[in-house]
Each structure stands twice: as structure tokens, then as C-alpha cells.
Amino acid sequence: MSVWDELTGQADAIGVLRAAAESSVAMAPTGSMTHSWLITGPPGSGRSNLAFAFAAALLSAGDPQDEVATLRQVEARSHPDLAVLSTERVIISIDEVRKLVSSSQFSPSIGRHRVMVIEDADRMTERTSNVLLKALEEPPERTVWILCAPSEADLIPTIRSRVRTVRLRVPSIDDVAELIVRRDGVDAQTAERAARLAQSHIGMAHRLATNAEARDRRDETLRTALAIHSVATAVSAAARLMEIAGDDAKAITEERDAEERESALRSLGVEPGGAVPAQLRGQLKTLEEDQKRRATRSLRDGLDRILVDLMSLYRDLVMLQLGRGGSVINRELEVELNAAAAASTPAQTLETLDSIALARRRIESNVAPALALEAMLVSAIRTPRKVQ
Length: 388
Known about the structure:
It comes from Compostimonas suwonensis. The protein is an alpha/beta fold.
């Protein structure tokens, strides 16, 4: 087994990083290895997975027998020469980056490299990015930085000039389905449907393939949009979509929050169900505040997932209205889609797609989500045609 085995649809990028890791181990003067990397690609393309596979390859020192054990340590974030900065909040704080930069100065303890990974590097403000910039300009000899972001444009120009960029593409539906079958053990039909509905987003395809409730919530989202026939139904649909996004965010965070609290209590020596000493309550309060910030981000991500699903719905309608029914994503709603396509024109459908894109930008800019959804769904009002 290799650290690259569970990656899919990114042969070119894997080739670049694999060659760099091998040249680093061999100390070969090929120029394929550098001290700072940027992995870019659309959401769900596997940026983080590739980053951690590369980290494991660097940390395993080229020993094939050591690769699997190293990868497990990397996945658990327990390798002594690995430091990871990730966030589920809106931005990465400057203090988090300062702490990471400080730890990057340490020498490797057991391997040839010390690897620093920043997921979602696009969530750094310019001031925070400048803290990182200083570390990239004069890194220790054996420190390797790996940044992940949707695109190069999401980082400031001075950082882009100091990293080597590896660009990922959207994997094919077949590639994602094959990975889901192999990794999650689901049947081929479920895997294909999940990959298709997720539009090749690997993480979302995994969730749809393994979580029936997530599939049901997605199905209700699309049916709710198709049932909008007036301003009143648009307003009620917005309220329902807010509830669906909240349920989805709660499902993702609730179990993790409980596990984190249990782990924190255990590390503090507090028995399950026992009272928390007053001097330890501050640490739990910090954890609870982090979890609240994560819940806010999860809700925003849930709303964005809903809007992406709606874009796939109206994209299907355009395809049907233009006679391209063979490329429909949401095939399970064929009857409803055909009826909706007959009730509007391609121009109206494109207008709704523009409204969805605008709603995404508004929510990202902190406009009240309910208002953004209501304004968007008004453009989705369709009056069913009367049967002659």
C-alpha cells in the first residue's frame, strides 16, 4: 500500500508531488523539490487529502514499509514532525499563524523534514498572510510548507510568488464513485448516484453515500424549490431551507462536539458525569466558544451546500429546455423536472441561476441568510401551466 492509493482523479498532481518527495529523500539535485507548496482546486477535489499524502511521503523518508504507519500518524495528526493549521471558523486568526510560524523553526525530531500544513489558507486576512510571508521568505533548511486554497487568487501576490503551485481538476464521476466503492464499501449504484449528485465533490459524495438522512435532506431541498408558485410559498420555502441547513449543520457538529468535550474532560482528569472543578471551567469555556464559532461556520457551509444543490437543479432545467436531457444530474426527479421545464423559459431559468449566485455572495458577505434566500427564491416562482 502507498500513501497515494486513496487519491483519485489527480494523476498529474500526484506525479509532481511524488517526484518531489522521492527527490527530497534521495537528495537529488533535480529541482523538483522546494520548501513551499500551494495546492489549489475546486471544493471537493481532494486538496487536503493530497496535502497529507505528500506530507506522509516526506515524513516516511522513502521507506515503503514506513509509509503506511506514517500516513496513519499523519491522519491522526500525531506525527511529531507534522504541524497542521485548519479552521472551521470564518477566518484563521493571526495568533494561530504566529504559533505555527514559531513551531516551524524547530528541527525535525525523527525524520528528514518538518512539515507545516495550512488547510483553507484562503481564510487568512492580509495582515495574517504577512506573518506567514516572513516564514516563507526565510524558512529553516528542512522545513516544508504546504498550503491549500481554492485558487491562487485567494492568496496575496507576495505569497503566490514564493510557492510552487500544483493545480487539481474536478475528478470525474466515475473516479469518485470508484473511490467511494473501494473506500466506503457501498454498492456501485449508490456510489454512482452519490458522486453524480455531489457533482464529483469527494467529501459530499462520501456523506451522501453513507448517510440516508443527508440524502433525504437534499431531496427535500430540491422538491421545496420546485413547489414555489407564489411569493408566500417563496418565503415559506426560505424558512424551510434555513431549517434544513440548521439540521444538516447540527448533524455534522453535534457528535463531534460531544466527543471533544468527553476527550477534554478525560484529559483534565474529570470522571464522566462528575462535577468540573472551578479552576478547570475556563478551559471548557474556551472549547465551548470554539464549538460555537464552528457551528456558525457549519451553518454557513450548509446554506452554501443548499445553494449549490439548487444550482444543479436549475442547471438541469436549462439542459432540458435546450434539449440536452442526457446530461441531467438529478435524474431521480425526472418527472418533476420535465414539468418545471415546461412551466418556464430558458431565460427565466438563467435569471434564477444568477439569483442563486448572488445569494451565495450575499451570504458570504454576512447578509442575513433568510433575507438572501427569500430574495433568491422569489426569482424561482413559477406558475404551473393550465392543461387545455
